[in-house]
């Protein structure tokens, strides 16, 4: 029996984030336990000729979805309130930032990947979002509609720029 479509989409999203982060020059690791963080992003430094991880810079929460809209230059996504509130809590406490990455997918995972002899291409986009809110959303069981500017598309360049800006 093949793996469930939801799991396939999740694997595509995780793979895309790992590829982008790695090519941008960062180390990405998965937390041992799931407490609302999908990746720890760590900077890489040099000690002599040896490369070493020099500390966590940011955490990423990844959402892969085929349920989104694009209007007036924004990706519209209904985020679970509990995830939004996790982001707000980090702001309030001054903790390591939590960046939301939303990967927009088609209805079928097969529509999102193209495998050819000369390349493997992920045909969908990722977008990053952070809130500067200090107020929590209401019920943890509801959702918050967020608008992510299309300009916040996550690629190798923007990944590096985003992480460096949060590492200042």
What's the CATH first level?
Answer: Alpha Beta
Average pLDDT taken over every residue: 89
* Helix-strand category: alpha+beta
The assigned CATH architecture is 3-Layer(aba) Sandwich
The Rg value, from CA coordinates, equals 17 Å
Biggest sheet, strands in spatial order? 1-2-3-6-9
| The CATH topology | Trna Endonuclease, Chain: A, domain 1
- What gross morphology would you assign? globular
Helix proportion range: 25-40%
Beta-strand percent range: 35-45%
Describe, in plain words, how this protein is organized in 3D.
With 168 residues, this protein is α+β, with helices and mostly antiparallel strands. It has a single domain (5-166), classed as 3-Layer(aba) Sandwich (Trna Endonuclease, Chain: A, domain 1), CATH 3.40.1350. It has helices at 5-23, 81-93, 156-166; strands at residues 27-29, 39-47, 50-65, 69-71, 74-80, 98-104, 113-115, 120-122, 125-129, 143-149. Strands 1-2-3-6-9 form a five-stranded mixed beta sheet, sandwiched between helices. It has a three-stranded antiparallel beta sheet with strand order 4-5-10. β4 and β5 (74-80) form a beta hairpin. The longest helix has 19 residues, at 5-23.
């Amino acid at each position: 029996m093949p793996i469930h479509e939801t799991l396939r989409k999740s694997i595509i999203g995780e793979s895309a984030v790992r590829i982008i982060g790695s090519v941008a020059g960062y180390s990405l690791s998965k937390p041992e336990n799931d407490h609302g963080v999908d990746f720890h992003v760590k900077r890489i430094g040099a000690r002599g000729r040896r490369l070493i991880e020099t500390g966590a810079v940011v955490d990423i929460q990844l959402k892969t979805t085929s349920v989104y809209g694009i209007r007036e230059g924004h990706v519209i996504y209904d985020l679970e309130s509990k995830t939004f509130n996790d982001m707000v809590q980090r702001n309030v406490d001054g903790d390591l930032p939590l960046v939301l990455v939303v990967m927009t997918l088609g209805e079928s995972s097969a529509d999102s990947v193209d495998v050819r002899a000369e390349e493997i291409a992920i045909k969908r986009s990722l977008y990053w979002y952070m809130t500067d809110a200090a107020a929590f959303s209401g019920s943890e069981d509801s959702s918050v509609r967020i608008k992510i500017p299309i300009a916040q598309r996550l690629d190798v360049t923007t990944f590096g720029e985003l992480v460096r800006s949060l590492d200042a």
